[in-house]
Design goal:
It is a single chain. By secondary structure, this protein is an alpha/beta fold. Helix content is about 25%, strand content about 25%. It is built from six helices and seven strands. Strands 2-3-4-5-7 form a five-stranded mixed β-barrel. The chain is globular and about 50 Å long. The two termini are about 15 Å apart.
């Protein structure tokens, strides 16, 4: 396990250089979306429409931030359970999205798509939304305003602390960590 400071976008070469267990600090532009936004994006793609942002080498944070208080860029911004996006993640990866930030396990179909397209799944600490929000320097609503907290947003983050949970080769920190614990290491 290593510590890496990464400047986005998350190119395939950069994504493939990351390994399960790596501690990373992301700086750059990421996008927010949850299940309702993912569903709309996949429906748009099925109709041959463009997405509200360029998905190539994009990183999507599964978050529904709370409203910003006066003087804040954004409210609390903790990760959403990623499994809710599993039905849509392979489609978004097929059009170029590469990084995903959330919490919890992923389905085998998502892991296979990550291996095919060079994707990475980053884990953020649940319950630390107020602390994660401090890494967000800019927030811009870009689409689906009617979804409220689930609207698509463009964020600029600095040194956002994450861990690579599943890498582009399918190594899974949840599984490896569990196995090491059970083996008494």
């Amino acid at each position: 396990m290593t510590e890496k400071h990464i400047t986005l976008p998350l190119t395939e070469e950069l994504a493939r250089s990351l390994h399960a267990g790596d501690r990373v600090y992301l700086t750059g532009t990421i996008y927010t979306s949850r299940d309702a936004g993912h569903k709309r994006m996949c429906e748009a793609l099925s109709r041959g429409e463009k997405l509200p942002f360029c998905p190539e080498d994009a990183t999507i944070y599964y978050v529904g931030p709370t409203p910003a208080k006066p003087g804040q860029v954004i409210g609390s911004a903790g990760p959403t359970t990623s499994g809710r996006m599993d039905a849509y993640a392979p489609t978004l990866m097929s059009v170029g999205a590469r990084g995903m930030i959330g919490k919890g396990e992923r389905l085998p179909e998502v892991v296979e798509a990550m291996k095919t397209y060079g994707g990475v799944y980053f884990g953020a600490i649940g319950g630390a939304g107020a602390l994660l929000a401090k890494c967000i320097r800019k927030c811009e609503l870009i689409a689906y305003e009617d979804l409220g907290a689930e609207a698509l947003r463009k964020l600029y983050v600095e040194e956002m602390p994450l861990v690579v949970i599943i890498d582009s080769e399918g190594r899974n920190l949840y599984q490896e960590g569990r196995a090491a614990y059970l083996a008494g290491r």
